[in-house]
Amino acid sequence: MEHALVAITDYCERIDDSFWAEPLNAATNLVFLFAAAAQIRALRKCAESIRRLWDLWALTGLLTAIGIGSFLWHTYATFWAELADVIPILLFLSLFLLSFLLRVIKLGAAWALFWFLLFQTVNTLLQWMLPGDLFNGSIFYLPAWAGLLVITLYCRFTLLGCSKRMLYAMLVFTLSLTLRTLDQSLCAVWPYGTHFLWHLMNGLTLYLVMGVLMPNRQTDRQLHTDAR
Predict the structure, then answer these.
(1) Domain of 198?
(2) Quick count: other Cβ atoms within 10 Å of Cβ 22?
(3) Distance between CA atoms of 116 and 120, rounded to whole angstroms?
(4) pLDDT-based confidence at 9, cuts 50/70/90?
(5) Cα dihedral 109/94/140/119 (nearest 10)
(6) What whole-number distance in Å separates Cα of residue 158 and Cα of residue 137?
């Protein structure tokens, strides 16, 4: 199966324009669908209505869209496929931040909007100021990494009940981002690259962070009290 347009070659696996030029990068997007399925199962166990959990259901839908969009990007590898890959990621990050501010930190709407807009402003400025190919394109995810670090530290020092889960997510995402960055530089010694590992670890990262938003999560304060 051949492309109508010339494919964009950004990864070790892709050496031609064929649909299945990136089999590992394409197939590993199943991890996002598995994570979405696990999240659906968890949400269906919640006693609260879909209306009260609309943002969690929307995030689950975006998680599915991330898997589909990334599959399209690693098979068609055209500009429109890149948009199908990037847009669900941006929407997921934005909605997760808002949900965390409102659900977990329990900020008022005005303060939640303030921090949301501040993050988006910093993110936009960073993307504008730095070259897009820096760190093999991983600069796109640097604000997400920094935001995850801030959230992890906040959870740790406020005993919000998400410190361990967020710490695991932070460690996995850090390793994931490192492997994404190394992909092109390892082509000569490992022709398959490491981008497929980025997919696998990202699926786990997104599943972990979504668990923080679940309404039946115990807080660290409760766990500490129970232990006493």
Answers:
(1) 23-217
(2) 27
(3) 6
(4) confident
(5) 0
(6) 34
Distance between CA atoms of residues 179 and 205, nearest Å: 14
Query: How far is residue 29's CA from residue 75's CA, in Å, rounded to a whole number?
Result: 11
207, 38 in Cβ contact below 8 A? yes
- The answer to the question of residue 13 being in a domain is no
Is residue 3 situated within a structural domain? Answer: no
As a dihedral over the C-alpha atoms of residue 196, residue 172, residue 63, residue 223, rounded to 10 degrees, the angle is 160
Mean pLDDT of the chain: 89
User: Going by C-beta distance under 8 Å and a sequence separation of 6 or more, which residues neighbour residue 181?
Assistant: 135, 136, 138
Question: What's the distance, Cα to Cα, between the start and end of the chain in Å?
Answer: 64
Q: Which of 55, 65, 66 is nearest to 212 (CA)?
A: 55
Between 161 and 15, name the one with better pLDDT: 15
Number of domains in the chain: 1
pLDDT band for position 215 (cuts 50, 70, 90): confident
pLDDT at 21 over 50: yes
Taking 3-state DSSP, the helix, strand and coil percentages for the chain, each rounded to the nearest 5, stand at 70, 0, 30
Q: State the pTM of this model.
A: 0.90
Task: Tell me if 222 is assigned to some domain.
Answer: no
Lowest mean pLDDT segment, chosen from 113-127, 182-196, 206-220: 206-220
100 is a domain residue: yes
Any idea what DSSP says for residue 4? S
**pLDDT score for 217:** 62
E strand or H helix at 87: helix 79-99
